[in-house]
Amino acid sequence: MNVDVLLGLQWGDEGKGKIVDYLADRYDIVARFQGGPNAGHTLHFDGKKFVLHTIPSGIFREGIINLIGNGVVIYPITLKDELNKISEAGVDYSRNLLVARKAHLITPTHRMLDAASELAKGKDKIGSTLRGIGPTYMDRTGRNGLRVGDLSLPDFEGKYEQLKQKHLSLLSALPKIDFDLETEEKAWFESLEALRAITPVDGEYFINKSIRNGKRILAEGAQGSMLDVDYGTYPFVTSSNTVTAGVCTGLGVAPKHIGEVIGITKAYCTRVGSGPFPSELNDEVGERLRAEGGEFGATTGRPRRCGWIDLPQLKYTIMLNGVTQLVMTKIDVLDHFEEIQAAVAYEIDGEVTDEVPYDLAMPGLNPIWKSYEGWNTSLEGIKIFGDLPKNVKDYVNELERELNVPITMVSNGPDRTQLVERATLGGISEKILHH
Ligand code: GDP
Ligand code: IMO
Ligand code: MG
Q: What is the number of helices (H) and of strands (E) in the chain?
């Protein structure tokens, strides 16, 4: 059985958590393959709301194994907090949560380095979530990192201390930041107990044996493809590969075992943090999208930048990921807009293109817009594609044609139950249903 992949096609926060939670009962295993507590994946069901940062979004489904994969970076304090919350909600994670031994640990001094390097960048700052992600991945590639498996080494504390000393010397060359290292370190060491309580596995063997045994596996992405370290809007990106290729390195899955690739896009577009965003609206329409969509970060609470959907950008990330089906979320946010727009191409110094240029921030790049009529009615409660107002169907069908990938699901609210699955598409969603 192949590994299906679900990931964000924009700049993150596309609604991955909701869709993974919805789809999880069709799978045996849900595995996060990259990112860390920079992610905030929101789940709504039975009148409750949870925000997950490290734990895969299949955790609330009975009988499913959730794996924190090799490519993930873990801050034990955040993880402990998440574990407490899911425990209170009745999840027995001793039965359904595993952690890969090769996953790297974020330490308090990684967080300090993140904050100090952002401060040093001044107005050029990335707008990092300051969760220590960049410095931890740097230590991974620099071959200095601490991994989950190291927790059982007799000299774990010595290794920690060595890394901390290296970080302190790096910090001495950076601007001073306000950080109570002693208190944070105490909490960090205490929280290791919670991490030790999760069953560790050799993630690559676990996944490959599961593939061989016919288990249905869903790989859950964090962030979005435009934040990919190689193909995103560098340097305004995160420090991991958020695209499908990241599943191979992050879980130890060979490319031939990648199955369906489910790409998620909002019906519009958002970005949090710095960096180019051609279809951003710095006007009252953007403000309205933020208000109607509740566009404030699930991890940091920062207001998200808002704009219309961007088709060249989506074509680019569909290409990079090999997307086989699309999910469009937050369509209900557009319920009361008279007019909806999409960037259908870019004009760059008089030339029209539907490709993403090397520098998306270049002056002289302007989106070419297309307008769609709004539907001016609530989509609440609609479960069947045919029951959607004509203007919604026209919008969805036209985007599908433009993007040349079937839109198999349209999400019309934050709750697990608020979703329209299209049965009309030659059984593509049935393939996920029954494979
Ligand atoms: P993720 O990081 O991709 O999991 O997305 P986030 O959880 O950061 O942000 C998505 C936000 O939109 C969350 O508050 C979700 O509860 C909410 N959401 C997801 N799908 C829908 C939808 O179809 N309609 C509405 N109105 N909200 C949604
Ligand atoms: P989910 O999984 C949206 C953004 C940050 C910043 C840049 C680098 O919830 O979609 P980092 O902390 O990784 O150094 O930040 O990436 N960013 C996200 N934006 N959703 C996320 O995750 C993000 N994770 C990181 O805002 O611009
Ligand atoms: Mg999020």
A: 13, 20
Residues with CB under 6 A from ligand 1: 8, 12-18, 39-42, 44, 294, 298, 329-330, 332-333, 411-414
> What is the rounded CA–CA span in Å between residue 430 and residue 327?
14
**290 token code pair:** 């933020």
Ligand 3 centre distance from Cα of residue 9 (Å): 13
DSSP 8-state symbol, 384: B
**Residues sharing a CB contact under 8 Å with residue 162, sequence separation 6 or more, in sequence order:** none
Residue nearest to atom 11 of ligand 1 (CA): 15
pTM, to two decimals: 0.97
Sort strands 407-411 and 419-421 into parallel, antiparallel or unpaired.
antiparallel
> Residues 8-35: pLDDT tens digits?
999 999 999 999 999 999 999 999 999 9
**Which ligand is closest to the CA of 11, given by its number?**
2
Taking residues 83-106, report their average pLDDT.
97
List all residues 6 or more positions away from 43 whose beta carbon is below 8 Å from its beta carbon.
17, 18, 21, 49, 50, 51, 52, 57, 60, 416
13 in catalytic set: yes
The residues pairing with 342 across neighbouring beta strands, listed in sequence order, are 309, 370
Distance 1 CA to ligand 2 centre (A): 31
CA of 156 to the centre of ligand 3 (A): 32
Active-site residue flag, 415: no
User: Hey, whose CA ends up nearest to atom 20 of ligand 1?
Assistant: 414
Q: How far is the C-alpha of 215 from the C-alpha of 200, rounded, in Å?
A: 19
* The 3-state secondary structure of 292-341, one letter per residue: HHCCECCCCCCECEEECEEHHHHHHHHHHHCCCEEEEECHHHHCCCCEEE
pLDDT over 70 (residue 287): yes
